[in-house]
Each structure stands twice: as structure tokens, then as C-alpha cells.
Amino acid sequence: MTHGVTAAPAMVDLGDLTGDVLVFGGPVSNRQATEAVLAEAEAHGIPPGRIVCTGDVAAYCAEPRATAELIRDAGIQVVRGNCEESLGQDAEDCGCNFASGSACDALADAWYRHARADLTGELRAWMAARPTAIRLRLAGFELLAVHGAPSQINHWIFPSTPLRDKAFEIALAGADGVLAGHSGIPFVETVQGHLWCNAGSAGMPANDGTPRGWYAVLSPDGDRVVVTLHAFDYDHATAVARMRDAGLPEGYATALATGRWPSEDILPRDERCAAGTPIAAPQHLVWTAGSRETTAHAGTHAACGCCA
Ligand SMILES: [Fe+2]
């Protein structure tokens, strides 16, 4: 069932952009965090036409309808996440690709039912009409924004994902760099001169023991792009209270306050090991043509030795 939408565009091309571009992922029904990240964009002076959300507008938190309305009415660019795909089709589950029996799998039923009940048919149609990819050019670089990865909407790419896998996905993108979401841990790196940037989630902390939301700003500077990962504080106490009022599972409500996911069993070993270690912010990566440097790599940590 597609609520009157028969064909969503596979890709939207924004063309050449001038000025800073703000990217964020995962509003996840967190109205307070969504308001905060949009306020951050306004504070940076970045207009809606240069703001890209990499999807999962409605998920774990209490206010799917209000969050989706905020995002839609902001007029920003939104890539279809697996949650938009599932909710837009009124599917039976979220399509997150969680392993059967995982903590995520157990929790998903409740939040997905809540989102499905709260969203209007009009919003589900809007979700179904989001493109699966957004292409843009910045300072001569071509970038492709997707949800999980170019190969698959719900493919997990983490900081520890092998470089060869990232290189494979970048080649599939046919672009100089990829802007992705879905996995929820912010990181940015260059892979054989190509960019992989996951701006993290605005509405769910980065499992780093802090309650912060995340976004990235890509700033053109001559023939290079400076990519900056930003963290922001917001009224997470209200978001937690709304989740409890709605009777949603405690795991994700607690996560908003503690910054620790209830679902670390889905993570690769390196990311499980890094859990609870605050990610530094802001941090910068200078991306130049042919660059081989990896100057920023948030989401992993170096101190404990257990990942060696
Ligand atoms: Fe997702």
C-alpha cells in the first residue's frame, strides 16, 4: 500500500551548491532534538536547500508525527531511510536489518507500532516519496547522500568497517564521496582520496556515554572541503519524559539520557569496545583531491587496548 504515491524518485540531483552544507541523520521521532538541529542550521546561516537529512525521520522516540511534520515543513532535502521505506509502505516491520533475537529486534516492535499508529496517511505518502539518493556537487567534488550504503538502504557501515568495503561502496556510488547514515555513529574519513562521512544521528546519542545529538557541516574552501563533525546538547529530559508517557520501552528512553544504546549486541567488536567513550567534538577533516590522509575518525577509540 503506497497511499497514492506510485513512483518515488530514485535520485534527486541538487546540482552545484555554493556555501556550507549541513548533513544529519536519524531524527528518530525525537522532536526536541530535531528542533535543536534545525536551530543549529539556522545559527550557522545554512538555508534549507543546503541541508540534507539521511533518513530515519520516525523511529525509536515518542513523537513520530510532530517530528516528520517538522522535517517536511522545514523544506530540507531528505533521503529515504529504511524507516521511511517501511512506514511509507505500511509494512509490518521497520526493515532495520537487525539480527533476529537481538535487543534491537525485541525493541523494534513497540516503537514501530507506535510510529505506525501516530503517523497520518499524508505523512506516510511523503515518506514514500523521498528519493533513495541525493547527488550534489561541492567545490568540484561529487557527493552521493544515501541512507545505509549505495548497495543497500539498510547496510551497516561503521568506523571499523574494512576500508575495502567502504571503497567498494564508494565505487558503486560513482561519486567522489558518500554521505551516509543508518549506523548511528558519527565518523568521517578518506578512503583512497574519497570521502566517507556519517554525520551520526540527531535524535539518538552516539553510544559514547553522552546525551548529545550529531551533525556534520561540509564547508567548501577553494578546491578543498573542510568536513566538521558537531555535537549539540538539547532538552533530552523532555524527550525521555515523552517516551515514558507514551509507554515506549525503557531501553531507548534511558539511552537518550545516558548516551548508551540498549542494543550494543548489534555492534562490531571495535564499536562495542568504544561504547561509553565520549567522542571529541568538533573535529575536522580537510578533504582535498587525491588526499590520502585520514585526519579524523570519530567513533573509535584508541586507549583501552582490547581492540588490538
Ligand atoms: Fe536506518
Describe the structure.
- The structure is a single chain.
- With 308 residues, this protein is α/β, with parallel strands linked by helices.
- The chain has a single domain (11-288), classed as Purple Acid Phosphatase, chain A, domain 2.
- It is built from 9 helices and 12 strands.
- It has helices spanning 31-44, 64-74, 82-88, 103-118, 121-128, 163-173, 236-245, 250-258, 269-274, and strands at 11-17, 21-24, 51-53, 77-78, 133-138, 141-145, 177-180, 187-191, 194-198, 213-221, 224-232, 283-288.
- α3 (82-88) crosses α5 and α7 (236-245) packs antiparallel against α8.
- The model is unreliable at 1-6 and 292-308 (pLDDT under 50).
- Bound molecules: fe (ii) ion.
Keywords:
single chain, 308 residues, alpha/beta, Purple Acid Phosphatase, chain A, domain 2, six-stranded mixed sheet, 9 helices, 12 strands, disordered N terminus, binds fe (ii) ion
A few lines on this structure:
This protein is an alpha/beta fold. Helix content is 30%, strand content 21%.
Q: Which SSEs are present, and which pair or pack?
A:
Elements: E1 11-17, E2 21-24, H1 31-44, E3 51-53, H2 64-74, E4 77-78, H3 82-88, H4 103-118, H5 121-128, E5 133-138, E6 141-145, H6 163-173, E7 177-180, E8 187-191, E9 194-198, E10 213-221, E11 224-232, H7 236-245, H8 250-258, H9 269-274, E12 283-288
Parallel strand pairs: 1-5, 2-3, 3-4, 6-7, 7-9
Antiparallel strand pairs: 2-10, 5-6, 8-9, 10-11, 11-12
Bound molecules: fe (ii) ion (FE2).
